């Protein structure tokens, strides 16, 4: 094999690689954003998380609450306690964009939290009863 054949083979390889890259780029350009979905989840400690999802690639996210910007570029955000109103997730890529707005309500207090508070109150009453009994006992013994 002489140098002209090597150069010819190398040139053909570059053309093939260029065609493959062009096809990959063309396929990505054909991927518009699908429907945008927003969900709200509440943890057992009352933390509220908003999550956004859509098809397409690559995706850029932005969030607004009642029209005020919150945070960009991430698909999931934690909302402050007491947050309510309309939250909007906007998604875009180089082909298209989409958005979805949902209403946000306070997270309900979990029954686990109520049980914890009731048990804590009961323990406090028992402790105060024991302290009162001890105080009365020490006054009688003297």
TrEMBL record:
The keyword Metal-binding does not apply. InterPro entries: Ig-like_dom, Ig-like_dom_sf, Ig-like_fold. SUPFAM superfamilies: Immunoglobulin. Gene3D superfamilies: Immunoglobulins (2.60.40.10). Residues 1-20 form the signal peptide. Residues 34-103 form the Ig-like domain. Keywords: Membrane, Signal, Transmembrane, Transmembrane helix. The keyword Ribonucleoprotein does not apply. The chain crosses the membrane at residues 114-137. This is Ig-like domain-containing protein. It comes from Anabarilius grahami.
């Amino acid at each position: 094999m002489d140098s002209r054949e090597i150069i010819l083979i190398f040139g053909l390889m570059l053309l093939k690689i260029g065609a493959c890259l062009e096809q990959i780029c063309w396929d990505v350009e054909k991927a518009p954003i699908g429907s945008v979905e927003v969900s709200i989840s509440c943890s057992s400690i009352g933390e509220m998380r908003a999550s956004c999802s859509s098809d397409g690639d690559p995706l850029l996210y932005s969030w607004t609450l009642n029209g005020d910007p919150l945070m960009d570029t991430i698909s999931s955000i934690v909302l402050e306690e007491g947050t309510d109103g309309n939250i909007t997730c906007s998604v875009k890529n180089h082909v298209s964009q989409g958005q979805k707005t949902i209403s946000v309500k306070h997270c309900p207090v979990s029954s686990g939290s109520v049980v914890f508070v009731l048990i804590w109150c009961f323990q406090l009453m028992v402790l105060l009863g024991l302290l009162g009994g001890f105080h009365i006992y020490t006054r009688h013994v003297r």
